[in-house]
Amino acid sequence: MPGDILISNIRPYFKKIVYCQSECGCSTDVLCFVPQTHDLSLYLFSTLYDDHFFDYIQPFCDRLAKAWEKLPDWRFGQLMVNLMQDYEAEHGRDIFYLEEDEMIREIEAYCERFSGGDIK
Fold it and tell me: Which of 2, 45, 60, 89 is most buried, by the most CB atoms less than 10 A from its CB?
């Protein structure tokens, strides 16, 4: 859709980012960001393209990658669902409203319980 932002899923820090000005399609190796309103699409694109975004999110991605190494047979969706399956019941919050530091703590705690190892 026009206004969508596509980012390569493979080494996204290379900033292979496309702002769709017309109908676009993508493979499973591409992340598709769809803004809630068309008015936000250029803002979202500029935010995702900015180095500060990657500086901000990279520590989270590094920690997630470390956790994922301990569970190599799982797809990303399986990893996230299994990591957070009890969170809502225990904390009364939807997992998608977690801040990054909270998510990291949950990932570390889960991996500690599941694999018996330390991912720090």
Answer: 45
CA 65, distance to chain mean position in Å, is: 11
Q: How far apart are CA 81 and CA 32, in angstroms?
A: 20
The whole-number mean pLDDT for each consecutive block of 10 residues of the chain, a chain of 120 residues, reads 85 80 81 85 88 83 80 78 75 78 81 62
Domain that holds residue 15: 5-49
84 plus 42 within the same structural domain: no
Residues 73 and 45 in one domain: no
* 39 CB burial (10 A radius; 0-12, 13-18, 19+): exposed
Contact 34, 7 (CB under 8 A): no
C-alpha 95/C-alpha 38 separation (Å) is 26
CA distances from 63 to 4, 14, 53 (A): 28, 19, 16
Whole-model pTM: value is 0.57
For residues 7 and 48, the answer to whether their CB atoms sit within 8 Å is yes
